Amino acid sequence: MTDFQLRNTPLLSRVGADRSDHLRTDIDAAIAGWAEAAVLRVDGRGQVLIADGKVVLGETAPLGDTPPHDAVFLGRLEDGRHVWAIRAPLAPPEDGADAQVLDIRRTGVLFDDVSAHLVSSATALLNWHDAARFSSVDGAPTQPSKGGWSRVNPVTGHEEFPRIDPAVICLVHDDADRVVLARQRNWPDRMFSLLAGFVEAGESFETCVSREIAEEVGLAVRDVRYLGSQPWPFPRSLMVGFHAVADPDQPFSFNDGEIAEAAWFTRDEVRAALGVGDWSTAAASASKLLLPGSISIAREIIESWAERD
After folding, report:
1. Which are the contacts of 303, defined by CB distance < 8 A and separation ≥ 6?
2. C-alpha dihedral over 97, 101, 106, 111, to 10 degrees?
3. Cα–Cα separations (whole angstroms), residue 146 to 6, 77, 78, 96
4. Average of pLDDT values for 5-20?
5. For residues 93 and 71, what is the distance between their CA atoms, to the nearest angstrom?
6. pLDDT for position 308
7. CATH T-level fold of 11-160
8. Whole-angstrom Cα distance, residue 175 to residue 305?
9. Under DSSP, is residue 13 helix (H, G, I), strand (E, B) or coil?
10. Do 11-160 and 165-306 come out as alike in CATH topology?
C-alpha cells in the first residue's frame, strides 16, 4: 500500500504556550498573576482580533482586580504572563495597532503558533461553558472550577469536565494516483473536501472510518491508516485524520442524504486546485474544484497526498 505522512502539524494542533495545568488546582496562584495577565476576548460568534500575525491580547485592568466569574485560564506565555480568555465583545488593541476580525473557520494562515494554541483552547472551553451550565446528571446549576477547566455542582460536589466529540476525516484513494472528494448538499457548487463523520458509542476510529464512508458514498475501504489529529472547537470536536484505499470500480451510492456528489480526481487535478487557493480565495476562479482552507486538517491531508511523486 502507498503510505504517506502529514508534512506539517495541522494549524490548530500547534503548541505555543505553556498550559500550566498545575495552576488549575492551585487557583490562588493562577489568580495571583491576574494583575499582569493578558486577556483574550472571543465574541459571541467565535471571532477574535488579529494584528501583525498575532491574536490581540488585552489588559486585565478594565475587568477588575480578579478574573470574572466565567473567565478561563489558558496558561502562561514565554515571558511568564498568565493568559485568560473571556466571552466578550472585541476591543481594539491598547497600542492602537491595526487589527482585523478573524473567524478561524473561514480564514487561512494569519497567526503564529501561540495564537493558534490560545484561540483553539479558548474557543473550545468557552463553547463548552456556554452549553454546560446545568448538570448532565440532575439538571442542577453548576459553577466554573479549576480556572474554567471543570464545572461543579455546589450542593453535591459532582464535577464535570469539558466535553469533546471525536470525529474521523479520511482521504480515500486508489493506492495510486486518484482520490475521492465529495460535496455536501449545503455547499456551493465546485466546493469539495474529504469524507468525515462523528464516532458513535462503542466504535473505534477505524470502524467509524469504514462505516461513515459506506454510509456517505457507498464505498468499501481497506488499509485504514492514521495520519494525525486537530482540535476543531466548533463547537467541541476533535478531528482524527486517516487515509484508506478503495476500489475505483465501485459505484457511488449516497445512502444517508448528506452528500450531493462525489468523484475520483487525479493527483494533477488536485494539484491544480490547490494552486488556485482555497474556498475563500478561489471562488471567482475557473477551477472546477475548490478545496478547504489551510485552517482545516482536510487541507493538510490533501496537500500531503498531492505532493507525493
Report:
1. 7, 274
2. 30
3. 35, 19, 22, 34
4. 92
5. 19
6. 83
7. Nucleoside Triphosphate Pyrophosphohydrolase (3.90.79)
8. 11
9. helix
10. yes
145 pLDDT more than 60: yes
Beta strands across the sheet bearing 72-76: 57-59, 38-42, 82-87, 72-76
The domains of the chain are located at 11-160, 165-306
Unique residue bearing C-alpha cell 488556485:
276
Does 309 have pLDDT greater than 80? no
Q: Which residues pair with 85 in a beta bridge?
A: 40, 72
Q: In the 8-state DSSP scheme, what is residue 238?
A: E
**Rg of the chain, C-alpha, whole Å:** 21
Task: Give SS3 for 273.
Answer: helix
Question: In sequence order, what DSSP letters do the residues of 37-96 get, joined into one string?
Answer: -EEEEE-TTS-EEEETTEE-EEESGGG-SS--TT-EEEEE-TTS-EEEEEE------TT-
Query: Which element (helix H / strand E) includes 224?
Result: strand 221-232
- CA 17, distance to chain mean position in Å, is 17
Asked if omega into 235 is within 30° of 0 (cis), the reply is yes
Averaged pLDDT, 115-126: 94
Residues near 40 by Cβ (< 8 Å), separated by ≥ 6?
Answer: 48, 55, 56, 57, 58, 74, 83, 84, 85, 86, 118, 119, 122
CATH code, residues 165-306: 3.90.79.10
Of the pLDDT bands very low, low, confident and very high (cuts 50, 70, 90), residue 1 is low
Instruction: Using the structure block, give the residue that is written with the C-alpha cell 462503542.
Output: 202
CB 239 within 8 A of CB 164: no
218 sits in the region (left: phi over 0; alpha: psi -120 to 50; else beta) called: left
Residue 109 has pLDDT above 70, yes or no: no
pLDDT recorded at residue 8: 93
CB 271, CB 306: distance < 8 Å: yes
Dig out the grid coordinates for 153 from the structure: 455542582
Q: Does residue 84 contact residue 70 with C-beta atoms inside 8 Å?
A: no
Q: Are 266 and 182 a contacting pair, CB within 8 Å?
A: no
